[in-house]
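Severity: low
Component: inverse-folding endpoint
Summary: output formatting inconsistent between runs
Steps to reproduce: submit the following structure tokens with default settings.
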């Protein structure tokens, strides 16, 4: 079993989303002790935002790409290969202003590629990254799973939508939330880790 753990927080070992994602990894490894874990840290090794030349390279047929175009797509090609190699994808991310960090959006822009991870036909779009499971480990200052802010959660909904679009439809979400709210923050991490402990991976 291959596990791809994509992390985004610049907080390192202090990151609640990374701690939650690591707990998911450890729980999976209880059942699959020989699982190989590949960590893609988007804070240490960020993906560049797409440029005109990169977009042009993506839409140039493989057999027609120049050496420069192939070079421009090396990082994107590596990310796509890691995605296809993985059996399980874990995305650990904080919520920034109701959405995902730009580093995670840049990674998505490099893996969501027409003709590679999805394609269009007369019947519509088809995701090509099949037979995978994904887990989201999301940290938030407020509570977004329910209550007044639920409609403002564009993190889980967006990630589920884009993963589903490329073919990864088996997605479960774990949250450590309320980290900025007195009376909730003190127990937020314990509650989140408990949900992981009780989940049947």
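Observed output (run 2 of 3):
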């Amino acid at each position: 079993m291959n596990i791809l753990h994509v992390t985004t927080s610049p907080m390192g070992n202090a990151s609640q989303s990374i701690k939650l994602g690591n707990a998911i990894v450890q729980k999976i490894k209880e059942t699959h002790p020989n699982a190989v874990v590949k960590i893609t840290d988007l804070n240490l090794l960020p993906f560049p935002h797409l440029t005109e030349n990169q977009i042009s390279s993506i839409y140039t047929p493989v057999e027609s790409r120049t050496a420069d175009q192939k070079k421009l797509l090396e990082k994107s090609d590596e990310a796509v290969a890691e995605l296809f190699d993985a059996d399980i994808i874990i995305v650990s991310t904080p919520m920034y202003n109701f959405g995902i960090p730009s580093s995670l959006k840049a990674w998505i822009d490099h893996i969501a590629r027409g003709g590679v991870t999805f394609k269009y036909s007369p019947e519509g779009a088809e995701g090509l990254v099949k037979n995978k499971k994904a887990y989201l480990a999301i940290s938030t200052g407020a509570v977004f799973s329910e209550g007044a802010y639920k409609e403002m959660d564009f993190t889980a909904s967006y990630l589920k939508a884009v993963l589903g679009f490329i073919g990864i439809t088996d997605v479960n979400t774990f949250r450590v939330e309320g980290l900025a709210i007195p009376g909730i923050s003190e127990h937020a991490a314990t509650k989140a880790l408990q949900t992981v402990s009780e989940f049947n991976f």
